[in-house]
């Protein structure tokens, strides 16, 4: 049996090779390429982000495991960890799990994150008395089990097919049911601790039932619903973060008198943007056919423009001296303005952008992601001050195989060793490959670039760089 004790006192290697390599990196403390029973029992934390693990057979031997974190794997069955009674945290986001094992020994479980899987139902939660945080968003759930007798403080169940919610636990502080099919609010009358409520993207036509939590809510998101009337937000004294909009209203009341830090606003039939609060640090303008954007607050630190297909030009932003993060996705622009000096993160995806902006003055820039645009040249990237840059991604553009472009990418590869991912589909189909490097002390996957270039379709053959 995999995970059983061999004659020499070690564990039999598990059948999944990727899992075994990760276990060796975490548990083989004497570097003898094996795992003893003592080493297995000493392991309390398993983390492997982006590891293509398929089979967890053999994990039964790690009886003192308290944290199991396998993000973006290929696991479909959690049965091998069902008997690990010391588990407090299970995070298996982005796998292929269709059901949770029952029975299980997870009586000490405090956090369960199974978001981004294939769950169609959940077992009853009575066997998990310590469960504080449940994350089941992005699954295929049509209903939730009884929750009123649990001790949950955080429930994330967004992007399923829920038409109603069961009675909720009194200790809930955060509820996120974004992207479902709710037509009415759940009963909030007993939720005296609730401060965050996310209702965006449902089928709500009215927001009846907010009164019991009105005074305490700090985060309220209701955009993306067919609301015909909006609440008077001036009666929410603690509100700092707001998702504001309706899919059927052409105008929204101005909110420039609210003391907000974060705001998401939009609507498909809006004829004008509302006046915005002046003190915003984060602003997302979304999901509108408007051709302009409102005046941007001067203290803005993060700006997100998304799903604005008729926005022909990005707003001027050089004077936004606090702006560090700029994200533009699915917007109809083909040029970027002069970017602000303090910019750290730049993301532009799914636009008609066909020319790189001036990077020379951006000494703070660290991460650049320009995927799925219409860029035809890369040489402007050579202007980047390389001291802080850790990641560049220009996947799926139209950059041809030219000497200048090859020289630019070779220069960047020399300057930026970690975290570089370059993949372009042009006339000659560049494919810059990257591999995860496991066994590091970091909890997130570190990517080590390969200096490679394929002039044909992607495949398993070895590659050489622009020679």
Automatic annotation (TrEMBL):
This is Leucine-rich repeat domain-containing protein. Keywords: Leucine-rich repeat, Repeat. Pfam families: LRR_4 (PF12799). InterPro entries: Leu-rich_rpt, Leu-rich_rpt_4, Leu-rich_rpt_typical-subtyp, LRR_dom_sf, SDS22/Internalin_LRR. The keyword DNA-binding does not apply. SUPFAM superfamilies: L domain-like. Coiled coil: none annotated. The keyword Repeat applies.
């Amino acid at each position: 049996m995999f995970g059983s004790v061999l004659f020499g006192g070690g564990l039999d290697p598990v059948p999944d090779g990727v899992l075994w390599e990760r276990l060796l990196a975490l548990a083989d403390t004497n570097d003898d390429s094996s795992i003893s029973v003592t080493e297995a029992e000493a392991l309390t934390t398993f983390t492997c982000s982006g590891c293509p693990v398929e089979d967890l057979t053999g994990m039964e031997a790690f009886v003192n495991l308290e944290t199991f974190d396998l993000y973006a794997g290929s696991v479909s069955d959690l049965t091998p960890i069902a008997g690990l009674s010391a588990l407090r945290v299970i995070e298996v986001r982005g796998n292929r799990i269709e059901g949770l094992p029952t029975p299980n020994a997870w009586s000490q479980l405090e956090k369960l994150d199974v978001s981004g899987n294939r769950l169609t139902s959940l077992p009853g939660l009575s066997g998990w008395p310590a469960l504080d945080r449940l994350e089941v968003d992005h699954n295929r759930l049509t209903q939730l089990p009884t929750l009123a007798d649990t001790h949950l403080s955080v429930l994330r169940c967004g992007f399923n097919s829920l038409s109603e919610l069961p009675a909720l636990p009194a200790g809930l502080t955060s509820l996120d049911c974004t992207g479902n099919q709710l037509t009415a609010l759940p009963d909030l009358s007993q939720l005296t601790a609730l401060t965050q409520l996310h209702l965006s993207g449902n089928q709500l036509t009215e927001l009846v039932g907010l009164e019991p939590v009105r005074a305490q809510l700090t985060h309220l998101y209701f955009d993306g619903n067919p609301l015909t009337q909006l609440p008077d937000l001036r009666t929410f004294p603690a509100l700092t973060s707001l998702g504001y909009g309706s899919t059927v209203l052409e105008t929204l009341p101005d909110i420039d008198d609210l003391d907000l830090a974060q705001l998401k606003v939009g609507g498909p039939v809006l004829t004008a943007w509302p006046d915005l609060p002046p003190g915003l640090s984060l602003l997302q303008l979304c999901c509108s056919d408007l051709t302009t954007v409102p005046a941007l607050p001067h203290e803005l630190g993060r700006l997100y423009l998304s799903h604005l297909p008729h926005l022909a030009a990005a707003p001027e932003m050089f004077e936004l001296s606090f702006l560090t993060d700029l994200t533009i996705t699915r917007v109809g622009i083909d040029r970027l303005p002069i970017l602000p000096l303090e910019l750290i993160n730049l993301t532009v995806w799914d636009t008609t952008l066909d020319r790189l902006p001036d990077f020379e003055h951006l000494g703070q820039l660290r991460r650049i992601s320009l995927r799925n645009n219409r860029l035809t040249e890369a040489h402007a990237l050579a202007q980047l001050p390389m001291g802080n840059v850790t990641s560049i991604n220009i996947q799926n553009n139209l950059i041809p195989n030219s000497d200048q472009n090859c020289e630019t990418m070779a220069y960047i590869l020399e300057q930026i060793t970690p975290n570089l991912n370059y993949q372009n589909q042009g006339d000659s189909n560049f494919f810059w490959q990257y591999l995860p490097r496991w066994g590091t002390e970091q909890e997130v996957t570190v990517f080590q670039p390969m200096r490679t270039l394929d002039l044909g379709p992607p495949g398993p053959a070895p590659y050489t760089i622009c020679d």
